[in-house]
Amino acid sequence: MFKVAVLVSGGGSNLQSIIDSISTGYLKDVSIEYVISDKGDAFALERAKNAGIKTLVIERNAHKQTLSEEIYKVLKGNVDLIVLAGFLSIIKGTLLEEFKNKIINIHPSLIPSFCGKGMYGLKVHEAAINYGVKVSGCTVHLVEEDTDAGAIVLQRTVEVLAEDTKETLQKRILVEEHKALPEAIKLFSENKISVAGRHVIVKE
Ligand code: GAR
């Protein structure tokens, strides 16, 4: 079994897409071992509980400097991949070193546009609309020390329409996120990913 931990901070629609992909059989021999939230009131926790998945809350406010260390203590030796699905805290230290190339994040833009510190959720879509881009999308990437800077695993594009608001664009991009994240997990679980510097190579 390929064991995954999903880290969340909010609504958890991306978590739901992973749960559903396991239920439908798109993800085979994959199990979500833990859902960890840095916020006690994240709706994602309800989704996890409904699916019978172990949940854990490690409050960001109570563990400002030690959050990654606390997560590492729980996950050390217990999972093959860590998935950040709308997780808004920074991953650092031993967790990052020991899970090198085994932590992925989903970001709601085409990196390197509209990403980095402070760029999350609706802010990303607002920035894309304000800039006037014609295409946006989502990116699954490896997690490194710098925010949103790791090598890209895969991207999906979405056309930006003249009448789009940040909310409508977010909605259409989420549809693609819900395909991209399970697809990336599938590639890792089938051992089809190798990393050469900034390049993620996907085996046929
Ligand atoms: C998603 O759009 C995700 O890409 C974004 O937060 C949302 C979480 O939604 N993540 C970031 O902006 C990270 N920089 P969800 O809780 O419904 O999955």
UniProtKB/TrEMBL annotation:
Binding site for N(1)-(5-phospho-beta-D-ribosyl)glycinamide: 12-14
Gene: purN
E.C. number: 2.1.2.2
Keywords tagged on the record: Purine biosynthesis, Transferase
Molecular function per GO: phosphoribosylglycinamide formyltransferase activity
Top-level taxon in the UniProt lineage: Bacteria
Any Pfam family the entry gives: Formyl_trans_N
InterPro entries: Formyl_transf_N (IPR002376), Formyl_transf_N_sf (IPR036477), GART (IPR004607)
Pathway given in the UniProt record: Purine metabolism; IMP biosynthesis via de novo pathway; N(2)-formyl-N(1)-(5-phospho-D-ribosyl)glycinamide from N(1)-(5-phospho-D-ribosyl)glycinamide (10-formyl THF route): step 1/1
Keyword Transferase: yes
UniProt organism field: Clostridium punense
Coiled coil (UniProt feature): none
Record's protein name: Phosphoribosylglycinamide formyltransferase
Catalysed reactions, semicolon-separated: N(1)-(5-phospho-beta-D-ribosyl)glycinamide + (6R)-10-formyltetrahydrofolate = N(2)-formyl-N(1)-(5-phospho-beta-D-ribosyl)glycinamide + (6S)-5,6,7,8-tetrahydrofolate + H(+)
Formyl transferase N-terminal domain ranges (all copies): 3-185
Task performed by this protein: Catalyzes the transfer of a formyl group from 10-formyltetrahydrofolate to 5-phospho-ribosyl-glycinamide (GAR), producing 5-phospho-ribosyl-N-formylglycinamide (FGAR) and tetrahydrofolate.
Keyword Lipid biosynthesis included in the entry's annotation: no
Enzyme class: transferase
Location of the active site: 107
Family statement drawn from the similarity comment of this UniProt entry: Belongs to the GART family.
